[in-house]
Amino acid sequence: MLLQRFTVPSGIRSSLSLKASSASAFTRCSPYSTQPPEPKAKVPLRILFCGSDLFSCYSLKALHAEHKANPGLIKSIDVMVRPGKAMGRGYKEIRQVPIQSLAEELSLPIHIRDTFTGWSLPQRTAGPDGGEPEPINLIVAVSFGLFVPPRILNQAKYGGLNVHPSLLPNLRGPAPLHHALLSRLSYTGVSVQTLSPQTFDAGTVIAQTPLPGVPIPQNCTVQQLHDLLAPLGAEMLVSALREGRHVPPLSAVVDNRIPEGGGDLKDGRKYAHAPKITKSDQRVSFLGHSSSEAALRARVCGGSLWTNVYPPVPAPKGPRPPKAGSEGSTTSESQDTVLGQLELQLPLTYPHPLEESTKGFPKRIILEEVSELFSPPPEISGDAGDAGGLEQQYQAYQRIVQAMNFGTVPSTTGNEQQLGLDDAAFSFQPTNNSESSPPENPRYWLLRFGEDEYVDIETTGANGEKATERKPRVSWGLCTRLGLDGRKEEDKGAVAFVMKGEEDGRFGLLRVGKIKVEGKAAKPAREVMKDLAVRAG
User: Which residues fall in a compositionally biased region of kind Polar residues (predicted)?
Assistant: First the structure.
């Protein structure tokens, strides 16, 4: 098998020098929250550093720099890393974690382990001439991912320390950076805590960013927040060691206990957990999410979103029923059948009694190049013209979607006028009916989505008995090209989904540049609408 060496980028490596100015653009907070304690008698530290990612690289670099400058404080550093992961075609390449590359660059002893079972802390001799072995006396775990068991902690004189990028006890867990952004926090920070022998992130907090914390920049990404907090955490760790905060008796700077049932923070928020980000965090709900929340999820969770869509059901075969009042107009059984099939094919109310086989089977689609779109100025509204302006057209679209998802879709002119619409504004055509093709360049498309929730549907069996079944919730979504034509070149194939806004009754717009249908390559969003949209107009 090939071994692929992970090289820490030079830009990251240079920023690991931990100059105090690294975060000056964001905060002037001191790296810890209380005055330095009285000096304590300290034994030179032999550290086992457990890490994995670039966040942990900052702390290891800081400890190594202190080891070189102050060997009386840090006498040696061993590094424990987890085995590399198989990557690439055929999983023939092993990609090692960034901390291993840094440890090799710094010529530090490396221990590759994926478990502590059957393993004990290494011991080093006092010098080249031998002498009594000196064991590891402090464990530092930063973004390691493995729980350090009590057996190992008890072997180290000072136990263990951890750098956590949040204001504990808020945002305990493996993804505090992501959840700080998803929760739309205005401030966050870093904490240095002891390693608890019971569970993750429940140790004694010996240093923490002072309240209110480090301001989170507007539209901040996970990487930007990482680059802001990683050097602060590394500096805080070294400062805590210099001041002997790791030496008993420990002084807690905050209470890291969470009251049973949750409890409140000082600003009124609930304590939040920060679980690992999964694919479910990237699932967008056109029924429940606002455009702002959907764009936030895309920005924080990897840049794309996904959902399930029900493509159009094939049009029923048979003669097309003549228009009412025309020659040959009948109420024949064939006409009723076709009209009934079309009604089943395009249910415009919910809940509906259709089985999955009638609705068709959902396909997963991935929405790429996602961002929140703010209303463009009227001068580029283009063909919105007679609809009363782009703002009014968007608002009308939102009313249509809300009516279809939560009430009855307007079917008469009177109802349309009640919603502030006219016949032209609601002239949708089935995309799958060859005798009634949609316009060559539709303004908008209606899609049917499968939601991640279930509802109780009352059904009637063949014997007339009623029963209740749980069915997946189906929602309607509407996207449009209005407001995108005439903008940037990359917007020519994009669409804007009309969603709810942050304010009650206000619309929101989610721009989607490309859509990848399950099993196919990503294409400009408008190109796939003919296969996904139930109606277009």
Answer: 327-336
Residue 69 above 90 pLDDT? yes
**H-helix segments, 156-221:** 176-182
The residue ranges of DSSP E strands in 45-179, in sequence order, are 45-51, 74-81, 85-87, 93-95, 110-112, 123-124, 134-135, 138-142, 160-164
In this prediction, residue 2 has a pLDDT band, given cuts at 50, 70 and 90, of: very low
- Residue 222: per-residue pLDDT: 96
Strand order in the sheet with 74-81: 110-112, 74-81, 45-51, 138-142, 160-164, 191-194, 205-208
pLDDT for res 7: 45
Closest CA to 204 of 248, 262, 143: 248
Q: What is the pLDDT of residues 213-225, one digit of tens each?
A: 999 999 999 999 9
Q: Which of 141, 264, 258, 256 is nearest to 208 (CA)?
A: 256
Structure tokens at 244: 């002997």
Angstrom CA distances, 251 to 74, 120, 162, 204, stand at 21, 29, 15, 8
Mean pLDDT of all residues belonging to the chain? 77
Residues 170/265, Cβ–Cβ less than 8 Å: yes
Tell me which residue of 236, 99, 84, 80 sits closest to 156, measured CA to CA: 80
Half-sphere exposure of 84 (CA within 13 A, CB side): 20
CA–CA distance, 521 with 511 (Å, rounded to integer) = 19
Q: What is the DSSP string of 252-292?
A: -SS-----TT--B-TTSPBP-B-PPP-GGGGB--TTT-BHH
For the chain, report the end-to-end CA distance as a whole number of angstroms.
56
Residue whose C-alpha is closest to residue 307's, from 520, 457, 474 = 474
Predicted confidence (pLDDT) at residue 241 exceeds the cutoff of 90: yes
Q: Which among 436, 398, 469 has a CA at the least distance from the CA of 312?
A: 436
- Partnered with residue 135 across adjacent β-strands are 123
Q: What is the pLDDT of residues 429-458, one digit of tens each?
A: 444 444 445 567 888 898 888 888 877 777
Record the tokens describing residue 43, joined without a space.
Answer: 């034994």
Strand partners, 2: 93
Candidates 49, 269, 282, 268; CA nearest to 171 is 269
Angstrom distance (rounded) from CA 297 to CA 275: 15
Asked if residue 532 lies in contact with residue 309, where contact means CB atoms within 8 angstroms, the answer is yes
Read out DSSP for 428-464? -EETT-TTSPPPSS-SEEEEEEEEEEEEEEEEE-TTS
Q: Which residue has the higher pLDDT, 232 or 123?
A: 232
Enclosing H/E stretch for 241: helix 222-242
> How many Å apart are CA 206 and CA 142, to the nearest integer?
15
